[in-house]
Amino acid sequence: MSGLIEKKILLGVTAGIAAYKAAELVRQLRQRGACVKVVMTESAQAFVSPLTFQALSGQPVHTQLLDPAAEAGMGHIELAKWADILLVAPASANFLARLATGQANDLLTTVCLATHAPIVVAPAMNQAMWSNPATRHNCQIIASRGIRIIGPANGSQACGDVGLGRMLEAQEITEALEQVTTGGLLMGKTVVITAGPTREPIDPVRYITNHSSGKMGYALAAAAREEGANTILISGPTSLEPLFGVRTIRVETARQMLDQALVLSGGADLFIGCAAVADYAPEQVALQKIKKDGNEALNLRLVKNPDVVAAVARLPERPFMVGFAAETENVLQHAREKLHRKNLDLVIANDVADSAIGFNSDRNAVWLLDAAGEIAYPEQDKRQLARRLMQEIAARLERHNSRKL
Length: 405
Ligand code: C5P
Fold this sequence. Notes:
Layout: E1 8-13, H1 19-31, E2 35-40, H2 50-57, H3 75-82, E3 85-91, H4 93-100, H5 107-114, E4 119-123, H6 127-131, H7 133-144, E5 148-149, E6 153-156, E7 162-166, H8 170-182, E8 190-195, E9 200-201, E10 207-208, H9 215-226, E11 230-235, E12 247-250, H10 254-264, E13 270-273, E14 280-282, E15 302-304, H11 308-313, E16 320-327, H12 331-341, E17 346-351, E18 363-370, E19 373-381, H13 382-404
Parallel strand pairs: 1-2, 1-3, 3-4, 4-5, 8-11, 8-13, 11-12, 13-16, 16-17
Antiparallel strand pairs: 6-7, 9-10, 14-15, 17-18, 18-19
The structure holds cytidine-5'-monophosphate.
Residues 194, 254, 273-275, 277, 279, 305, 307-309, 323-325, 338 line the site of cytidine-5'-monophosphate.
């Protein structure tokens, strides 16, 4: 049953081409049983007419701060009190800036200040505007006040650019609101996730690494945070945007990752080893750049790195342990062997021989396996897959904890 049944959702629509997607969003929210009222900023009305939202929501659309039709002329207070959730989709760069500085210069920003309801924003803007330090800073301020930022997604934009800035699809936004109403499956839990590659230095300018992009681990961290977990991400070097609301610790080498993992896992409920930790590191790191002159061949002696996930699994008070298995053949057999050898509770396995999925791709297909059996997850977007996996992992963690009682 949908958690949105009879929930009162106040949808703020700000200026952006993604405003047309907000129309579909109203439809989906109502299909799930929510009652929706819409507030539009003045510029948003240049993109979609208030009449569209009036027809779809079955309610008058609010556009003015000073609304003579509202009881006692205080429409903003009435709307602020009415809402169970305040959702702003699309949220423009200008709106985020006004929200961050606590402005109250139109109906929507005033309602945001006046409401006690949880606020969720789904940004949509050009990729350069999204990555601008001013917008990044505004988002940090907003997130630190408990406002949830969902998205944006990566992809092609209306302006012709490609990058981060597209508003999430209506279904993804609806799912995020469902989580707000349930409080999340991992509420009160601490989750530690490793992500990305590690980088093992040879000398001050060279290193050994691998193709991991970190996308799957970051998507899992975002999903854990969406489920209400106190989320800690131990990240190797990646080019990914930092995640709001996720404590991120950056490391370079496997040894640094191990040190952080051992410290941060004390008291954690769940550990997910998603990093592609380099298996070997140079035994000696040259203090000066190794010169190639006169050296036709170079011998590097590599020594085995510590196994981070296996070391955490050996802790006396270990969290629920999830590992990954990236394989090129006999995927399930190798993954099951890893489950036992590393003393894990669950393994997520994928076939990295298939270049359409896995490393660096935005898509993945996996199996989730444990002592009881396996579940196949067909190829899908990594963010969606991460949400599905996190729901399954949370359910198993719950069962595991209730057996311990
Ligand atoms: O042994 P293999 O690298 O195939 O195992 C993959 C799993 O083990 C992943 O969960 C990975 O994060 C973890 N791992 C680790 N430390 C290593 C090697 C792998 O945590 N040194």
